[in-house]
Each structure stands twice: as C-alpha cells, then as structure tokens.
Design a protein that fits this description.
alpha+beta; SH3 type barrels; five-stranded antiparallel β-sheet; three-stranded mixed β-sheet; 8 strands
C-alpha cells in the first residue's frame, strides 16, 4: 500500500487535537519493510510559542501508534516518529511559508535552470509561491514547485567581543571552591 502523507495528516489531526496539538507536517521516508512515518506536531494556536514538551510528545506517540496500526495505515514493520518542528523548521506547505513571513530562511531552489542556495527573509507568501529578500539585496519570487528544500534559520545572536569575559584561573568565578585570593602585603 502506498502511504500518502495527506491521508496520515487528515487521520491524525483530530486525534492529537485533544492534546492541544496541531499537525505541522507528515513525512514518510524509506520504502518496503524499512519505512518511517514521521508526524511533526506543534502546540495549537492558543499556546503557540510555548513549544512541545517531551511528555506531550510521549502522549501523542502512545495515542497515535495503536490508532494508526488499527486503521492499517501503519504496518508492524513501520517506525512511527512523533516530534516537534524545532527551532529551524522545514517549510513545505504554503501555510508554513505564510507563518514564516519576516523570518530568515535558507532555500535551495531552481533559478534560471540552475540549482542555487540562497539565504534571505520571507516577505510574502501565497498559494503559488513566496517572496524572498535575499542577503545580497535582491528580491526574488520563488514558486513552490521550484523549491527543493527550505528551512527557517535560528540566529543565536552576536558572538562575544574578543577580550571580554573571564579567563581561566582569574577571578572568583573560576577559583577553586574554598580557596582564598592571595593576600599581598604593602610596606
């Protein structure tokens, strides 16, 4: 049986809703007996931004596994993975791109017959594609059909300035517990 991610999505969405979860994505990898079904869930709109904790992932896995097996959508040899999208989210669907407006992304796509990788900010998105303000100052319209891969980028912030912070062996923070600073005498 060929498994369709949309079929899985429509089946599991009402099952995880009571857990205050939405289905972000469904991915099926592998074929034959070594197939993995990955269900990516996120907190519903009422609690968006809070992330999905491990207990909720565990609850969703315990709920989905028997239901998918009983429905015939999950075989005994299949592996079910339930996870959260994480900080750097894969963008596949138009609603993913619409939710990422204003965010920095890395995209691999076809442009003028060649495969290119670009970074930039998603400035608009609709049913057919999205607008990207690239890091080199260009504004580009990219059709979803031309996208090979796209994900949001998490920026950790600026690197610390050189010469700042404590140095090993100096100051109280790095001193051995119970030791005292050297006393100097003045004559």
């Amino acid at each position: 049986m060929t498994l369709d991610p949309e079929m899985i999505r429509s089946f599991v969405a009402p099952l995880v809703a009571p857990l205050d979860l939405d289905v972000y994505d469904v991915e099926i990898t592998g074929s034959g007996p070594a197939r993995a079904v990955r269900v990516v869930v996120e907190r519903s709109d009422a609690t968006a931004g809070s992330g999905v904790d491990l207990d909720r992932i565990t609850d969703a896995t315990r709920l989905l596994s028997p239901e998918l097996s009983a429905s015939g959508l999950l075989r005994d040899s299949d592996v079910l993975e339930v996870s959260s999208p994480g900080l750097e989210r894969t963008l596949r669907r138009p609603e993913h791109f619409q939710a990422a407006i204003g965010e920095q992304v890395s995209v691999k796509h076809t442009h003028a017959g060649e495969t290119v990788r670009e970074r930039g900010v998603v400035t608009a998105a609709d049913a057919d594609g999205f607008e990207l303000a690239t890091d080199d100052g260009a504004n580009r319209r990219i059709a979803y059909a031309d996208v090979a891969a796209c994900r949001t980028l998490f920026e950790w912030g600026p690197a610390p300035r050189p010469g700042r912070g404590s140095k090993p062996g100096k100051g109280g923070a790095n001193r051995a517990k119970g030791s005292r600073p050297k006393e100097t005498s003045r004559s």
